[in-house]
Specification:
- By secondary structure, this protein is an alpha/beta fold.
- It has four helices and 14 strands.
């Protein structure tokens, strides 16, 4: 399967499809509600980042379709500010993609659909690829014709430290492996405020958290996102 890791996104050059992990629009507002003083920059910074990403992707090939892997918004309930930000984002996207080519997957945070015409769905199948969030298993994802499952939800990251374990840094990462005879790629969250959940510290990982159980996840390869490149770091089970 021909795909590329470009920054925090997954790109299929032959198909012109760009895939984005969990956005969590409204995370900034949730922090503000909790008493954290933050300027309102999330949606502006997101659009700026997407503009830069689109330019970089187009240097590799065509860009015809974009897929969001769920948890597009953060709050479980209705928040007016989140709805406004959601609409602002998709007004921007409408300048780059036809409406039918903006695919919105429903994640566990997406209890309310802010899209204009109830566009969100639990999964999207494109030829032999199934895109889904990853919190729920759908039989359609494991049909014979499906070769690749692309998901988010887990927010994978990795903690790297020096030999003395004094300096520790966290990085977002992709996970790539096999489950039930299907190739699986797990994207990091696109959210800038947090790196995610460290996969080299999985003691608290519960099998019912995602469709991928811990035993299978330990065999996945780790691809760490650096400043300008993505680096392969071996398998999850070999990381400490």
């Amino acid at each position: 399967m021909n795909y590329k890791f470009i920054l925090k996104s997954l790109y299929f050059p032959d198909k012109g499809i760009l895939v984005i992990g969990d956005l969590h629009i409204g995370y900034e507002y949730a922090l503000q509600q909790a008493g954290v003083l933050l300027p309102e920059r999330q949606i502006k910074d997101l659009i700026k980042e997407l503009k830069s990403l689109f330019q970089q992707v187009k240097s590799h090939g065509k860009l015809d379709k974009i897929v969001f892997l769920g948890d597009i918004k953060h709050a479980f309930g209705y928040e007016y500010k989140d709805k406004v930000s959601f609409r602002e984002l998709f007004e921007f996207l409408s300048k780059h993609f036809k409406e039918k080519d903006t695919i919105l997957i429903k994640g566990n945070h997406d209890t309310i659909d802010y899209s204009f015409e109830e566009k969100m769905s639990f999964y999207h199948i494109e030829n032999d690829i199934c895109f889904l969030h990853g919190d729920k298993l759908f039989p359609e994802a494991f049909e014979k014709n499906i070769k690749l499952i692309v998901m988010g939800h887990i927010h994978p990251s990795i903690i790297l430290s020096d030999k003395q374990n004094i300096k520790r840094e966290s990085y977002k990462c992709f996970l790539e492996g096999k489950f039930k005879n299907k190739q699986v790629v797990i994207l990091p969250s696109f959210l800038e405020y947090t790196d995610g959940s460290p996969i080299n510290n999985m003691e608290d990982y519960e099998d019912d958290f995602s469709i991928i159980p811990k035993k299978a996840l330990l065999t996945f390869k780790v691809h760490v996102i650096g400043e300008n490149e993505v680096y392969e770091f071996g398998k999850v089970k070999d990381l400490k």
